[in-house]
Amino acid sequence: MTDIDDNLREQSPLRKAFREARAVLGIAIVMGISYNLFAATRIPWIREARQRDSASMAALSMLDTNTTSTPADMGDTSAGGNAPVASTNDTMATAAPDTSGLAALTKHERDSVEKMRRDSLKVAQLDAKRVRDSIAQAQSAGFLEQVASLKEINTDIAKRLYDMKAAIFIDARPEDHYIESHIPGAMNIYETEWQSHIPELVKLPREQLVVTYCGGGDACELSHDLADHLRGIGFKKVVVYTGGIKDWTAKKYPVGTAQK
Amino acid sequence: MQPEATLHEHDGPPRAGIRSSRLNELATSPAMRWVSLAVRIFLGVFFLVSGAEKLTALKVFGHSIAMYEILPEGISNIAAILFVWTEILTGALLIAGAAIRGSALVIASMLVVFLIAILSAMARGMDIDCGCFAGPPQPVGWPKVFEDVGLLIAAIFLIYFPYSYFTIGRLLRREAAQGEPV
Question: H-helix or E-strand containing B153?
């Protein structure tokens, strides 16, 4: 009787399934451990949470408040407080001669004064443009220097670098993710395969500002790991855009797609 | 010498016990064997491919698990390794037709875990990659829930209807007894 009961229990589908499942799980665990001990593409057993660099973040905040304008609108910096300079209209008003007494002059004299006024305006406009350009250049250089001193940047700064075309963006995600969406112009170097891209990387100047990014969020390690690799092979200015493609697309900034 | 029931597992009903039950009759009918074969191969290929793909991007899968914020971030890589190898092994076993019930139960358990994770992420309003495949990101949402429920039904089906053609056991037995149909 006992034998028959045991036999019946043994034939229960779930009981048999549990017995087999234990064996399957055991083998899977052994295979997983063995693979991650010996495979070339093994990953760390324990995932270390990245600590935010508080000094970088403080600097980042300063950059946010002081340098949020783009080079295109740097001409009007009097409100920004960095380097006050007269706006184009102010400059022109100062440079243009006073023409309030023109009515008392002859036609020829009026034409001469008008011509002088136009010439003065042209010179003033050229001067203002030169001043704006030099300020923008100085500010861009300062901005890039400040960015290069950081380890992480946020979306505003990444967008500004993108607009300025002042940095090389590298997408550290796998190719499939890159194909789906990426920051336009970004290279794709999947972090775990970065060594196969060394021939491309050695062609880049080591002084070049490089921005790495991945999916975004605190758990995204690929961009940090790739940045470490790049620093390891001599790149001096490598920053991680921590917002990644997630924040970039959330702000509806342009994204590119690619084909295999 | 192994008992008959163990030797012939997945090839037919056990010789004793609930042999005469309707469930077993249905499970061993030729039509149901073909259905079981189709479900087994589909589920096996699905999990084998899914696991093999993720194996090439383990770090990304670990990141996907961490993004759910259910497990402590530190152990998300360990979870990734175990999930991936469990998927590969169960997929391969299903295709081979060995330990079908056990593999189906493990797959069903994983799918329940995935379902809980996806529903929990949806309830928390998280817009994250589900991490289901190594390909392009697929957001968590109802389509993924329905997909997992479909796979779960298939896995549960295999627990109760594991008998099918072209199992490794049948092939080995044919070697032993020439002429027996596979």
Answer: helix B142-160
